[in-house]
Design a protein that fits this description.
Layout lengths: L13 H8 L3 H15 L4 E11 L28 H13 L4 E6 L9 H13 L3 E5 L5 H10 L3 E3 L6 H7 L5 H13 L3 E3 L2 E3 L5 H12 L7 E6 L16 H14 L4 E4 L8 H9 L4 E3 L12 H11 L2 E2 L10 H11 L11
Parallel strand pairs: 1-2, 1-9, 1-10, 2-3, 3-4, 4-5, 6-7, 7-8, 8-9
Helix pairs in contact: 1-8, 2-9, 3-4, 4-5, 5-7, 8-9, 9-10
The protein binds S-adenosylmethionine, 6-(5-methyl-2-OXO-imidazolidin-4-yl)-hexanoic acid (DTB) and iron/sulfur cluster.
């Protein structure tokens, strides 16, 4: 007998995943929405804000990325941002309603000299009562432990695509390198944020392969960002053909069914999506977004536009439950913040 569809499985076969992708669209979305409702409040979406703490001049050759030093994308390189500046940005993100602050660096991996600054960023953001996430490239086990000890909640490291298509996209590190970093992150007790990019010219089989890799990890990533390629002039993928929008929605729905208890993030690419497309993505089981006018280096919808969309759809931002160890001060802050709910339409009232 088949296992119920929403028990956590780690043994998905290619045939099963392909069959999900090939379902009639309405059947797939209905199934995804049913699974979603068994695990989450369907009218809540987690809200994260990104901050590029170190921009450009990256030695890697990821074909999609405006920050690689190998492509002329007109991006100005910047040094590691000062800790105080990062904390100012985090404060602003919190005030505009984000509960998680994700700090990204255009590095192959963090250098020893950078670690003290990065650790202070984590400590400072955590003290504000926000969840913390970092994406700094490959990590050693020791670096993962240092980040965990500083209070980091999540580490983002994407598998990006299938193992087969990966070679067409990046040559400067291997798929196994990525899996090794995910292992170090997990072993350090950090929560894993890992997903990929679609619309890079990959085949459906590659989207199947990516989701199989993610769902067949020993533990599902707690957070699964699905990025639609942002085509940036100067990168090798700048002229890539558009992916059928329904195929993007299918990818979200299949991710939701395969990793029922994970947050699936409707990540990069929202600037090119209309409200209807985003609503469909939420219906397919996406329950997290990047919020704020910039991703790392490219534009994202304006915050008030997102809040209007949430209002029109009766969606509430998911609140962040502070862990027991949080100070009383942080809890008081959070209670005050709950009153910010006046910004949001409550569909239940
Ligand atoms: N340098 C680190 C690394 O690659 O792990 C961290 C930052 S990197 C910019 C984080 C992720 O952003 C990449 O893994 C990729 O999935 C995503 N990304 C980068 N450029 C993108 C683009 N043009 N469109 C969509 N996603 C993109
Ligand atoms: C993720 O999966 N997407 C984010 C975050 N993790 C770090 C990054 C998207 C970057 C889009 C291109 C840019 O703005 O540079
Ligand atoms: Fe560098 Fe990360 Fe961009 Fe790759 S995705 S070029 S590693 S910043």
């Amino acid at each position: 007998m088949n296992a119920p569809v929403d028990t956590l499985r780690h043994n998905w076969t290619r045939a099963e995943v392909k069959a999900l992708f090939e379902l009639p669209f309405n059947d797939l979305l209905f199934e995804a929405q049913c699974v979603h409702r068994r695990h989450f409040n369907p009218n809540e979406v987690q809200v994260s804000t990104l901050c590029s703490i170190k921009t450009g001049a990256c030695p890697e050759d990821c074909a999609y990325c405006p920050q690689s030093a190998r492509y002329d994308t007109g991006l100005e390189r910047e040094k590691l941002m000062a800790v105080e500046k990062v904390l100012e940005e985090a404060k602003a993100a919190k005030e505009s309603g984000a509960t998680r602050f994700c700090m990204g660096a255009a590095w192959r991996s963090p250098k020893a000299k950078d670690m003290p600054y990065v650790l202070n960023m984590v400590k400072g953001v955590k003290e504000m009562g926000m969840e913390t996430c970092m994406t700094l490239g490959m990590l050693s086990s020791d670096q993962a432990v240092e980040l965990k000890d500083a209070g980091l909640d999540y580490y983002n490291h994407n598998l990006d695509t299938s193992p087969e298509y990966y070679q067409c996209i990046i040559s400067t590190r291997t798929y196994q390198d990525r899996l090794d970093t995910l292992d170090s992150v997990r072993e350090a007790g950090l929560k894993v944020c890992s997903g990929g990019i679609v619309g890079m010219g990959e085949k459906e089989d590659d989207r199947v392969g990516l989701l199989m890799q993610l769902a067949n990890l020993k533990e599902h990533p707690e957070s699964v960002p699905i990025n639609m390629l942002v085509k940036v002039e100067g990168t090798p993928l700048a002229e890539e053909a558009d992916l059928d929008p329904f195929e993007f929605i299918r990818t979200i729905a299949v991710a939701r069914i395969m990793m029922p208890a994970s947050h699936v993030r409707l990540s990069a690419g929202r600037e090119e999506m209309n409200d209807q497309m985003q609503a469909l993505a939420f219906f397919a089981g996406a329950n997290s977004i990047f919020y704020g006018e910039k991703l790392l280096t490219t534009p994202n919808p304006e915050s008030n536009k997102d809040m209007q969309l949430f209002q029109r759809l009766g969606i509430q931002p998911e609140s962040y439950k502070v862990e027991e160890s949080a100070s009383e001060e942080v809890l008081v802050e959070q209670l005050k913040e709950a009153k910010m709910d006046k910004f949001f339409y409550n569909a239940a009232q």
